[in-house]
Amino acid sequence: MTSPNDDRFDWTAAEADLSADAEVVDLAARRRKPTDSVKSFTVDLDDEADDQEADTPPPVDPPHVPAPSAFASVLAGKTATRRPIVPAWLRSRVDLVTAGRWAFSHYTHVSLYHLTRSPKYTLRLAWRAPFGVARVLGATVRWVSDAEGIPVRLAAVRREDAELYLKLSRQRDARVRWRGIVVTAVLLLGVPTVAVLMALAGSWQRWAILAGAVALLGLAGTPKDKPLLDVAAVTPRARKLSADVVTRAFLAAGLCKVDDPITFPMPIMRDGPGWRAVVDLPYTTTADKAIKRRTELAAGLDLDEVQVWPERVRGTSGSARRLSLWVADEDPYAKPSGLWPLIDRGSVDIFAPFPFGQDQRGRPIPLLLMFTSLLVGAIPRMGKTFAARLPVLAAALDPIVELHVYDGKGGQDWRAFERIAHRAGYGVRDEIVEALVEDLRALVVDMNRRYDTISTLPPDLCPESKVTREIAEKRSLKLWPVLVAIDEFQRYSGHPVHGDEIVSLLTELCKVGPSVGIMILLATQKPDGKAVPTDLRDNIGTRFALKTMTWQSSEAVLGAGSYPAGYDSSRFQRAHKGVGILLGADDSGAVEEAVTVRTNFAKTAHVETVVARALALRQKAGTLTGHAIGQAPEQTTSAGDILLDDILTVVSATEPKVWSETVVARLAELRPDVYGGWEPAQLAAALKPHRIPVGRQVWGTDPTTGKGANRKGIHRDDITNAVTERNRRRKAG
Ligand SMILES: Nc1ncnc2c1ncn2[C@@H]1O[C@H](COP(=O)(O)OP(=O)(O)OP(=O)(O)O)[C@@H](O)[C@H]1O
C-alpha cells in the first residue's frame, strides 16, 4: 500500500530558509542596544564588578562574526538548496495517477460528447456551406480587385494628391492584372481538373470529395461568435494562487497587518489538483489561529471553504507560525470516491494500517484499528454504515481476527458477515440484546484471562506487555485479536433494561481491552451524550464524524474541544457522502491532528465479495468459530442465572423468607448497573421463567418502623432448588 507520506512535501528548502531567518533574527538582536531589562540580569559580586556592570552590561548577543568574504559567499551559494529537476508532481505516483485518470476521463468524455453530436455538426456544416461559398467568392473578388487599397486611394483623392493617386492607380492596375491572370488560370486549370477527377473517381470517393468540400465551405461560413462545436466541459472556477492573492486573504482574515505582513519561505507551487503556498505568519500569530479562521481565509480568497485547506507545518522544518495553505481547484468531495482497493484481491494484517479513504488531495489515508477503538457518528444517510463496514471488512481479511457483529437496525447492511462472524446479532429483540450482553460479559471475563496469560509470557516473546502478531498467531494462547462492531449503537445503549450494562461493559472493554487485542467499533446516527455517554466516548481512541446537524453533535463524536480547535463536521454538505473528520489515526495509531477523509466505497454487493474471500481465508486457516459454524455461545451464566446466584448472595441461609422489596434493595446495592431501579414486579417477572412463586405472603419486620407485617416475598429454598435444577441440567448437557 502506498504510504501517505510518499508524496508529502519536500521541506528541505524550508529548512534552508529557516536557518536564513534565524540569522536575520540574530543580526537584528546584535543591532539592538542593551535595555534596562538586560541590565537587571547583573549580579552584585563586589563593588568593582558593580561599577563595571553599570558601564558595560553582560553581553546577551553572540560574539561578532565578521561578514563572509566574497569567495565564501560563492561557496555558500554552492550549498544552497537545489530545486528538483523533475517536478514533484512527476515524481509522485499518486499525482501522476491522478493526472492520468483525469486526462483519460476528460478526453473520453469530450470525445463521446462530440461523437453523439456529430449529426448536428454535419447539418450545421451543410447549412453554413452556402455562406462559405459566398464568403470565398467575396474574398476572391476583393483580392482580385485590390479592395484593401480603396481607402488609401480615396484618401489621395480627398487630399487631391494627383501624383500619389496616379502612383496608386498604376500599382492597383498591375495588381489587378496579375491577380486576374492567377484567378483565370486557376479556373481554367482547376475546374476541368476537378471535373475529370470527379468523373474518374468511384462513387464513395465522390462523396468524400463532396463531404470535404462541404466541410471546408461550412467552416469558411462559420461566424466567429458561433463556433461549430458545442462546449463539452465547463472549466470550474479555479483560483491560481499568487503572493498578492494570498496576502490579501490573510489581511482580510485579520491574520497579519499591512506593516507586519506574512512572508513566503518558498515559492507558491502546483501541488496535486490545486496550489500550495507556505506562509510564515507574523511572530505574534500562530498557525493554529489561522486554521481556526479557515472560513475567513476562504472569504479572502473568494472561494468556498471546502476548497481551502490550511495546515500547520510541523517538525524541524516547521514552526508554530508556519502554515501550509493548499487551495483545491474545485470542491474535492464533489466527485464519487474510489472503490475500496481490497474488494477483489489482497489480505490484511490487522496489526498494520489498511486502506480507509483519501484526503482532499486524493492521497490515501490508512487506518490502524489495532490497539484502539473507533466511534463513527453522523446523521442518517451520510455514509456511516459504509464507513463502519470498511474496518470490519479489513478485519475479515485477516483470518486471525475474531468478529462480533451487531446491527441495531437489522437490515441487509451487515448480514453478509454472518458467514464469518464468531457472534452476530441483528435488531433489538430481547434475545438479541441479551445475547449481546452475555457476549460482552464473556469478553470482559476473557479480557482478564488475556491479561493473566500475557503476564506469564517471557519478555523476549512479549516485550511490551501487549499482544503482537507473533503472539496472536499462537492459537494455544487464545490471544487472537477480537473486533466487536456495533452499528446503530443508540438502539442498544438506549435499551430500557440492558442499556446501562451494555455501556458499562463496553467502557470497560475500551478502557482496558486494546492492549490485549480487543477492539471496539461503534456507529451511531444519534451522536449525543445519551447514546454514547462521555465516559465511553472518552475511552475510544479514534473517532470519525461524518455530516452532523450541529457543531454540538460534531463535538459529541470528536470530543470536547474539537470545535474550538476548528473541527466541525456540521459544515459538510449533504452531497458530501462518506466524507468525515477522522481524529486520532495516523499510521502509527497515535492520536494525531484530525484529517478530513472521503471513505473508499464498498456497497453491499462488494461486501459479499469480500466476505466470500474472507470465508475462504478463514476456512484455509481453520479459524472459523462460533456463529459462523453454527456453534451456540458456550453455556455460561445467563442473565436469569446471575439473578439466582445474586439472590443467594444477598439472602443468607439464616433468612428462609424475605420480602421482595428487601431483595431488590439489596440487589441494587450489589449491582447498581443491573438492578438499579428494580421494583418487586420486575423481580417477579425475572423469576417467572424459573417457575419461582413470588406472590407468597411472607412475615417480616420493617427496618424503619420496627413493626412486623405480611408482604409479598420469596422463599430462599425455592431459589436453592432452582439453582440445583439448573446445575443438574447443565451437567446433563
Ligand atoms: N464513500 C462514499 N462515497 C459515495 N457515496 C457514499 C459513500 N459512503 C456512502 N455513500 C452513499 O451514502 C448512502 C448512505 O450510506 P449509509 O447507508 O452508510 O448511511 P447511514 O449513515 O448508515 O444511513 P442510516 O443511518 O440510515 O443507516 C449510501 O446509499 C451510499 O450510496
Automatic annotation (TrEMBL):
Biased composition (Pro residues): 56-66
Annotated TM spans: 176-198
Gene3D superfamilies in the cross-refs: P-loop containing nucleotide triphosphate hydrolases (3.40.50.300)
Region annotation Disordered: where it falls in the sequence: 32-69, 696-733
Keyword NADP: no
One Gene Ontology biological process: cell division
Record key words, sorted: ATP-binding, Cell cycle, Cell division, Membrane, Nucleotide-binding, Transmembrane, Transmembrane helix
Annotated binding of ATP, by residue: A378, I379, P380, R381, M382, G383, K384, T385
The protein's name: Cell division protein FtsK
Origin species: Plantactinospora endophytica
